[in-house]
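Chapter review: from sequence to fold.
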Amino acid sequence: MTPKNLIVLAATTAVAVGAAVVSLNTGGAGSGVAVSGHVIPGLIDRVNDVAKVTIEHRDKTLTLVRGAKGAWTMPESDGYPVSAKVAEKVVVQMADLNFYELKTRKPELYSRLHVADPKAAKAEAREIKLYDAAGKVMADLIAGRKRYNLVGPRKEGVYIRKPGDAQTWLAAGEFDVEVKPRDWLVQELIDIKEDTVRAATVRHPGGEVVRVVKNDPKERDFTLLDIPAGKKLQYDTDPNNIAGVIDQLELDDARKAGFVGFDADKTISAEFITRDGLKVMIDLQAKDGADWARISAAALPDAPAPASGAKSAAERAAAINAHVGGWVFALPGFKASRLKRGLSDMLVDAKPAS
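The token string follows.
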């Protein structure tokens, strides 16, 4: 989203907020006393001044920084790109919040609304701060549980508290504040459909090799090669799952290359070959409770000429490398687990012929 578009969105939101304020006092849901007005006065007119967002939750902090050209990055992920759409959405949502009802002032009841100390060990609250380019705090808010049954034009709300203020409120408006890097970073790594893959090979530390192929694209399933005598696949879909690792592959987190050493005795190495001659390579190693991947691509020497209007394998490889080069990525568990499965995980004893 460009700054110009953000201004337009903010203006549109302001109109909607104005309309909502008129009706907020006409029938608040819950037991509190109805109130109205912007939670952060004047923020709707200054959304373009926001240069940094921080989200604090328990012992972690996520930081979103907007550069001079409007691009957002996350320092905790070594400056990996943040989705501008997601970052700017939370800024506009915060500006859009409007008081709806007064709630408790008793700290012992904060936990019910999830607005207690956001840095406590088991906290559910999130503290969100907005800063301008000079580092001045523009807004500071503790957000808790959501509500979905408000009366009026806005059906969704969130319980809130301002730091240092005992008063809590129910605020009207959407407010999506996630606490994992993947919810903010540009997630997509590569997207190569399973039905375009011809073969995949996974080499495990210790020497075990898992190979799956589908030479005929009309076949339903991939075939697992080199099944030992007396064994069979427990699930026919296991080979398909391996080939599908690079289908809609997204990240959970990112770091600069060098964060993981990819030691030979700890690294799983996978290679995927597509029907148009593209080779994608993934090295996988565990660190700090996550599975980190190094990704690269190349065109096979005998890659066929592309169809009219399509990109060649070399062009596709160059685009992949430009996107993932210089980074390592924490993969979602369900994707990493597919690469980590060895033959013993997929095979069972075959029943002897009667």
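Two observations follow directly from the output. The longest helix spans residues 3-24. Residues 10-31 have pLDDT under 50 and may be disordered.
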